Amino acid sequence: MQPLVYRHNRVTRLTHWINAIALVILFMSGLQIFNAFPHLHWGSKAEPREALFSVAAIDEDGDVRGYTELLGHRMDTTGVLGVQFTESGPLARAFPSWITIPGYFWLAGGRRWHFFFGWLFALNGLLYFVYNLLNGHVRKFLFTFHDAAKVPAMILYYLHVRRESPQEGEYNPLQKLAYTSVFVILTPLVLLSGMAMSPQLDMAFHWMPAMFGGRQAARTVHFLLAFGFVSFTFGHVFMVLTTGVFNNMRSMVTGWYKEKVPTHVEIVSETATMSPSPARVPTLALEGEGKGEGAQQADAKPNDQTPVPERKVDSESNPKDEGHADEKPKA
Amino acid sequence: MKNPRLDLSRRKLLFGALQSAGLILLSGCEKMFNSLQENKKFLSLLDSAEDLNLRVQRFLTPRNKLAQEFSPQDISRYFKANGNPPPITMDYLADAARQWSEWRLKVSGLVTKPVQFSLSELKSMPSRTQITRHDCVEGWSAIAKWKGVPLAGIVQRVQPSSKANYVVLHCMDTDDQGTNYYESIDLIDASHPQTILAYEMNDRPLPIEHGAPLRLRVENQLGYKHAKYIQAIEFVADYKNIRQGKGGYWEDQGYEWFAGI
Asked: Among A39, A48, A115, whose Cβ lies nearest the Cβ of B53?
């Protein structure tokens, strides 16, 4: 049994779930708003027939077809985009009702959801970021040049080409890259491009629509970034499901996470006994907590070279303390 | 030792379960969101964002800061005329043919000097010309050149009483139920230098589909605030007693009174 460590503080857990709800609602109500004008343009204005992306329904002699056009390439997307099949027959609708809030067409309703949860998303994100900046947690997943050098190795590890994970702290280089781009690129830009659609804010800050290339361009960027969040979420949920869904969920609900010995360690330890290489110990010791090769091969001599990342650890469940390894944390 | 086949079938089962859970979740979610949408208490919670938007956006905008003005080559080739169809009654069309010689703009309400203007009187007053971007609540934008009388000048002229907080614009156009369009803005927006009563669009008399003879331009807000076919301006303390009490035709149907975003 591996010991449990206290991985996610209360604020992180709370803001994580608020954020999850807010993102889903923002995405779905955003599509409701998009449906009111299902065309994306560049520049300040939306000149007809100059759209970069369009969803439309066309009546072809009684047969209603849905089309999606991207940069002049038209695709029949009947059933999904443009036309949706309902119990009362085909319905012209850019995004289908099951993915919009409200489910029926009501722009005013979609806007109210969107702006309320927009505020919630922004303030919740601010709370998370400030709290974890002050306690130093943000530093653990901030992607640096040092991490950039480790990205290829991490990709090879994920592809099962490389046996050892180049991970050093709590987060591996690709995780850091993903989280950092969400915080440094995706979130600020999605807020700014959203605000750049406000005529009042555009009056106050002329640079706001200008930085995207005009209000319609900001709308296009906002739409694309929304799908950036969707792809991040898919990747995130995929990783949660495939790297021990119970453990991951427990850590984000209760805070307690079971330290994992990377699957490669069994194999590595075999090779490692053949050629012990102390120089490689820090890179191999996942989480820097004395597990991995170091712990496997040198039970008598705990690996103290490994840097220990700052972390709140219940003294009784200190993963370094092998003697208490089976103890559960106090609730 | 793990059995890879067992692993695979377990994975299949997991994905199958997720898939069906997803489908149930989706249809359940749609129902949940729709019923929340009908819930008055929940709606008023969502509405709190409007007040926040108004306060924060006002706070961030320096008084009399101008909206971006564009150059003549930015003017849209196509400018969609949204909203109700024009009020094409016999009277309206006959007056249009006479260059609006019968039409009057009545300014009344909580003012010391109620007044009526003919179109030629408005045209002889100091004017402002601006090339600005029109942002529809639907999402599109179009750019046009507008010429008109700053509303601030009219506010000054009629001398609103200290009780007056809002300017209500009563319009001639109606929807298919016969309900007249109307709008309201507060005195802060009414006094903004770019808030004008426009009688010209792109150097020509305001076309019928864009609100002839007179429409509002209030450049810090979305298109539905820019009332067309104006026939009367009323200064009021509150818009709660007008129609459904939300301050405008679209507001009465759920759109925000403050359309700054």
From this structure: A115
* DSSP state, residue B111: B
Cβ-defined contact of A199 to B219 (cutoff 8 Å): yes
The dihedral sign for the CA sequence A213, A219, A220, A224: positive
The token pair at B217 is: 């331009």
- The alpha-helical segments, DSSP class H, found in B132-253 are 151-158, 187-190
**Is A2 in CB contact (< 8 Å) with chain B?**
no
A 113-132 residues with CB below 8 A of B? 113, 115-116, 118-119
A215: part of which helix (H) or strand (E)?
A: helix A215-242
Q: What is the pLDDT along chain A (331 residues), one digit of tens a residue?
A: 678 888 899 999 999 999 999 999 999 999 999 999 999 999 999 999 899 999 999 988 888 899 999 998 999 999 899 999 888 888 899 999 989 998 888 999 999 999 999 999 999 999 999 999 999 888 888 898 888 888 888 888 888 888 888 888 778 888 889 899 999 899 999 999 999 999 999 999 999 999 999 999 999 999 999 999 999 999 999 999 998 999 999 999 999 998 765 544 444 444 444 444 444 434 333 443 333 333 344 344 444 444 444 444 444 444 443 334 344 444 3
CA neighbor of A110 nearest in space, from B127, B36, B143? B36
Q: Which of B52, B77, B78 sits opposite A119 (nearest CB)?
A: B52
On whether any CB of chain B is under 8 Å from the CB of A42, the answer is no
What are the respective helix, strand and coil percentages of chain B, to the nearest 5? 35, 25, 40
Tokens of B138: 């639907």
- DSSP letter at A64? E
From the list A8, A48, A180, A191, the residue with the least C-alpha distance to A114 is A191
Assigned token pair, B119: 């179109």
Contacts of B26 in chain A (CB under 8 A): 98-99
Answer whether B141 sits within 8 Å of A104, measured CB to CB: no
Which two structure tokens, joined as six digits, stand for A55? Answer: 């969803």
Q: A328: helix, coil or strand?
A: coil
Distance of CA A153 to the CA centre of its chain: 21
Structure tokens at B116: 């009526």
CA dihedral B47, B52, B53, B57 (to 10 degrees): 170
What are the chain A neighbours of B81 within 8 Å (beta carbons)? none
For residue A59, give every residue at least 6 positions away whose Cβ sits within 8 Å of its Cβ, in sequence order, or none.
none
**Coil, helix or strand at residue B145:** strand
Neighbour-count burial of B231, counting CB atoms closer than 10 A to its CB (0-12 exposed, 13-18 middle, 19+ buried): middle
Closest partner residue to A108 (CB to CB) among B61, B133, B253 is B253
